[in-house]
Amino acid sequence: MSDYLWDKSGSDPETELLENLLSEFGSSRQSRGSGCPVTPEDKRPFWRNRVFFAAVPAFGVILVAAFWFSFPTESNERIASAGIGSTRGEDKEAVRLGEPELVARKAIKMNVGRSKKIDRKQRIIKKSSVRKNTFRSARKKVTPPSTIVPPVLTSEEKEAYSQLIKALSITSSKLRMVKEKASGIEVPKGSE
Amino acid sequence: MRKQIRKLTLTFVFVMTVLAVSVSAQNARLDFDNLKPLEDRAVDVVEINIDGNVLNLAKRVLLKVKDKDAKIVGEAIQGLEAIYVRVLRFENENEYNIGEVDTIRMQLQSPGWEKLANVRSKKNNQKIDVYTMFEGDVMSGVAVVISESRSIALVNIIGPIDIDLLADLGGKLNIPRIEIETSDDGN
Asked: pLDDT band for position A36 (50/70/90)?
């Protein structure tokens, strides 16, 4: 048995013919040693792998996004409730353009490639009105409960006020007494 | 010359009108001085005089207080010019001479005062008199004189005021609703 297939010693015309035919599809690199050909790429550490290089930044972006949306800032809530991703740049744009316009732009972007039968303008208006309503509900701010602030009074004002209240209190009670006496409500039976 | 005479006449009429109004307003004021000797004998004495700057201060406070009841009270006393209150309570019955209170009742016999209510009860020797003074259709004064065997209460209000509204003020804006005592030793 020929060792041609193992270490290219001797001759094996059929194999050589096949080699020649398939050589145009083969790698230009030469195997370093004998035995099973091993490419240098296979020996690279995993962190030099192309897939790993792509995965790390993607994972980082996902982490940052998760961290960003974990804080319920007003703009995040707005965008999240509208179902659109947001970045700081977009928030600034929202401030600059005004939210409805930004939403309209986003709606345009989102709707590109979808059904072309519906008139684009109508779709944008529809979408933006939906977004507007969503924003409007998201914009509702929680107003703090109204607290009654007592008026700041000087000592003279306090004294005058308390005197007036006393006087009114006595006057009120006496007038009520007169009213009730005059109408006979308080007159006990057989008192006269 | 004629113009000067006309000016002088108009000024005189204006001054006299102002004087008449102020004098009539002052007429509603009762003199409580003869009650001074009684104050020494009384166990409890309440003396409240609110007029001028004090009343203005109190009215200002009512404006500051953002309250519905404060608004009602403020409206009730809007035209109030002065309010004078005296309440004297004695330890024993007949500790004062009823004649001393009658001198105040005599003041109410002067022209201008009209009797609104008059209640006489043998129980506690209760005598209640309510008088009002009017300038045209506008009330310019109210006087309430209540004498009982152990107590005297006098209220003198100067200026237009709604009596019914004032009577209903009890319980509003920390004005305590003082219930009328019906017991024998009542106030």
From this structure: low
Q: Which residues neighbour A137 within 8 Å (Cβ) at sequence distance 6 or greater?
A: A81
Give which of B108, B56, B49 is closest to B77, Cα–Cα. Answer: B56
3-class SS at B113?
A: strand
Amino acid at the residue A125: I
Q: How far is A174 from chain B (nearest CA, A)?
A: 8
Mutation target for B interface from A152, A173, A180: give the one with most B CBs within 10 A.
A173
Contacts of A157 in chain B (CB under 8 A): 57-58, 60-61
How far, in Å, CA of A34 to CA of A51, rounded?
A: 30
How many of the other CB atoms lie within 10 Å of CB of B74?
17
Where do the structural domains in chain B lie, given as residue ranges? 29-167
What's the whole-number mean pLDDT along residues B26-33? Answer: 81
For residue A178, give the nearest of B56, B164, B185, B54 by alpha carbon: B164
Q: Where are the domains of chain A?
A: 50-139
The whole-model pTM stands at 0.51
Interior angle at CA B40, CA B36 and CA B156, nearest 5? 40
